[in-house]
Specification:
- The chain has 372 residues and is mainly beta.
- Helix content is 2%, strand content 43%.
- The strands form eight sheets. A five-stranded mixed sheet has the order 17-18-19-20-24, with no helix packed on it. A four-stranded antiparallel sheet has the order 1-2-3-4, with no helix packed on it. A four-stranded antiparallel sheet has the order 5-6-7-8, with no helix packed on it.
- Keywords: WD repeat.
- Belongs to the TCAB1 family.
Length: 372
C-alpha cells in the first residue's frame, strides 16, 4: 500500500483551480474541470494535476494569495512552509519559485513557520511560530516584524497571565474587523489587533491543540477545531456566548479542516471515519445546553476526510481523504514461528483521493461526484 496520502485541499479565490497537500511533500494544482460549465455534463474525467511544487520536508501549512485572479498572472501565487525550510512563494501559473521569506530565531538560525495566512488585502503574510507571530511585507520579503503571543510585551497584567504559549498552529483574519485570531497547541485561541498585534482576549475550551480557525462572513462568529477533538467551538464575539458543534469523529492528531458556505449558515467538516457533517449554525442550541447536532451526515469516503473546501462561486465541494495506515497484528499460522504475531497491512483499507461533490439543486446537477 502506498505511503502517500492527501492532507488537505483549498480552492483558489477565483475558483478556477484547486491546490492539494500530500504526504510526499508536494503541492499539486488542479484546474476546475471545464465540463462543469456544460449543462449536458453527465460525468467528469479523472483529474490530473497541471502543476507540482515539491517542498524539501513535511509541509506545515500553505495558503493562496487572497486577491488571486487567473486573469492577472502576477497575482497567482501560493505561500507554503515546511520543516527546516524557509517560507516559499510559488508561482501558481508556472510552478516556479518566486520568492523566499527567511525567518530567523534568536540564535540567528533559520526557523520554520507552522502556520501561514495573508492579510485580507494581501499586503502582509502572517506566520506562526513558538509563542510568536512574524509579519512579512508581501512585496518586501526582507522586512519582518516580530509579535510575541505570550503576553510578555503587553502592559495589561491580566493579559500577560493569559498569554498564548506553545506553537501558533493556525491564523485567521476577521473579514470586517481589524483583528485576527491565532490558535495554539496550548489549546487556546487568541484575538489580536491587526495594526499592532496587541492582545484583545484569550479564549479557552478545547480538548486538544488548535488546528483550524474560520470567521463567519459577518465577522461576529469565530469557529475553531483541535487535535483529537470531536467538537468545533463557535465563539460569539458580540454577545460573548458560545456553542458547540458536536457529531464528528476525530481520533488522530491530523489537521482536520472545515469550511463555511458563502452566507455563513452552513458549516461542513469531515472526520476520521470518512463522514462529512453539515451543521445549520442559525438553529437554536438544544435543550441540553449550547450544543448543535448535524442536520446532515453522509459517507463521503472510505477513509479519513481531512480536507473540506467549498467553491467560492459554485455549489461545489472538494474533499481530500487519506491518513497514514499503521499495520495490524495477525496470526502467523506457524506454531514454530518464534516471531509470534506478525504485522500486516492486509486488513487495512485506505482511500487516498480528491473528490468533487455537486451541492446544488438536484434538477440542475451537472456532474455528481468525481474522484481525481
Amino acid at each position: 500500500m502506498t505511503e502517500n496520502f492527501l492532507k488537505g485541499c483549498k480552492w483558489a479565490p477565483d475558483g478556477l483551480c484547486l491546490v492539494t497537500n500530500s504526504a510526499d511533500n508536494v503541492l499539486r494544482v488542479y484546474n476546475l474541470p471545464p465540463e462543469l460549465h456544460s449543462p449536458d455534463c453527465e460525468g467528469l474525467p479523472e483529474m490530473t494535476p497541471v502543476l507540482r511544487m515539491a517542498e524539501g520536508d513535511t509541509v506545515y501549512d500553505y495558503c493562496w494569495y487572497p486577491l488571486m485572479s487567473s486573469m492577472e498572472p502576477e497575482t497567482c501565487f501560493i505561500a507554503s512552509s515546511s520543516r527546516d525550510n524557509p517560507i516559499h512563494i510559488w508561482d501558481a501559473f508556472y510552478g516556479d519559485l518566486r520568492a523566499t521569506f527567511r525567518p530567523y530565531n534568536h540564535l540567528d538560525e533559520l526557523s520554520a513557520a507552522h502556520s501561514l495566512c495573508f492579510s485580507p488585502d494581501g499586503a502582509q503574510l502572517f506566520c506562526g511560530f513558538d509563542r510568536m507571530v512574524r509579519v512579512f511585507q508581501t512585496c518586501r520579503p526582507a522586512l519582518c516584524e516580530k509579535r510575541p503571543s505570550d503576553g510578555l510585551s503587553c502592559s495589561s497584567l491580566s493579559l500577560q497571565k493569559q498569554g498564548q504559549s506553545g506553537l501558533i498552529s493556525c491564523i485567521a483574519f476577521s473579514p470586517v474587523q481589524d483583528l485576527y485570531a491565532c490558535g495554539s497547541y496550548s489549546r487556546t485561541v487568541g484575538l489580536y489587533s491587526r495594526a499592532e498585534g496587541l492582545p484583545i482576549a484569550v479564549l479557552q475550551g478545547h480538548q486538544g491543540g488548535l488546528t483550524h480557525l474560520r470567521f463567519s462572513p459577518d465577522g461576529t462568529l469565530l469557529y475553531s477545531g483541535g487535535r483529537k477533538d470531536p467538537e468545533i467551538l463557535c465563539w460569539d464575539l458580540v454577545s460573548g456566548q458560545g456553542a458547540v458543534l458536536h457529531g464528528r469523529a476525530v481520533s488522530t492528531n491530523q489537521r482536520m479542516y472545515f469550511d463555511l458556505e458563502l452566507s455563513g449558515q452552513y458549516l461542513l467538516s469531515g472526520d476520521t471515519e470518512g463522514v462529512v457533517s453539515v451543521w445549520d449554525t442559525t438553529l437554536p442550541p438544544s435543550k441540553e445546553g449550547p450544543v448543535l447536532q448535524p442536520i446532515l451526515q453522509f459517507q463521503a469516503q472510505k477513509d479519513c476526510v481531512n480536507g473540506i473546501s467549498l467553491h467560492p462561486l459554485m455549489p461545489l465541494l472538494a474533499c481530500s481523504s487519506g491518513q497514514r495506515q499503521l499495520p495490524e497484528p495477525c496470526e502467523s499460522g506457524d506454531e514454530s514461528d518464534e516471531a509470534g504475531d506478525l504485522m500486516t497491512l492486509r486488513n487495512v483499507q485506505g482511500e487516498n483521493s480528491l473528490t468533487l461533490l455537486w451541492a446544488g439543486p438536484t434538477a440542475q446537477q451537472t456532474g455528481g461526484e468525481r474522484t481525481g
